[in-house]
Specification:
The protein has 112 residues and is of the alpha+beta class. The protein has helices spanning 4-25, 59-68, 70-81, 98-110; strands at residues 32-40, 46-54, 90-95. A 3-stranded mixed beta sheet has the order 1-2-3.
Length: 112
C-alpha cells in the first residue's frame, strides 16, 4: 500500500511533467503529449511516467525523442520540485496505449 506522501509526490510529478511536455509540444503543431500516470518506487529513486501521445501513429517516434531528452526533462523537473524533494528520481517514460486499446474494442463491438 502506498503512503499518502508517495501519492502526493506522484501527482506532483505527473502535473509538472504534463506542464513540461505542454510547453515543449507547443512548438510542434498537431502533437499532444499527456502524462496519464506516474508510479514511483518507495525509496523515490525511480519514477515511471506513462505517456499518451496523439496522434498515436507517431507515438514511438516521439517517445524515442523524449527518451533522448530525458536528462533535460529531469533537470526541468528538478527546477520545479527542488524545494520539495532532496533527490529528483530517475525517469522512465513508457507509452500508454490504453486509448488505442479502447478504440480497438469499440470497433470490434460495433462491427456486426
Amino acid at each position: 500500500m502506498e503512503s499518502t506522501r508517495l501519492q502526493k509526490i506522484e501527482r506532483q510529478i505527473q502535473k509538472d511533467l504534463g506542464e513540461i511536455f505542454l510547453a515543449q509540444t507547443r512548438q510542434i503543431p498537431g502533437i499532444l503529449v499527456s502524462v496519464t500516470g506516474v508510479k514511483t518506487s518507495p525509496d523515490l529513486s525511480l519514477s515511471k511516467a506513462y505517456l499518451s501521445i496523439f496522434p498515436s501513429e507517431k507515438g514511438e517516434e516521439i517517445l524515442s525523442n523524449i527518451n533522448l531528452q530525458k536528462k533535460a526533462v529531469r533537470y526541468e523537473l528538478g527546477l520545479r520540485m527542488g524545494k520539495q524533494l532532496r533527490r529528483i528520481p530517475e525517469l522512465v517514460f513508457l507509452l500508454d496505449d490504453s486509448l488505442d486499446y479502447l478504440d480497438k474494442i469499440d470497433v470490434l463491438l460495433n462491427r456486426k
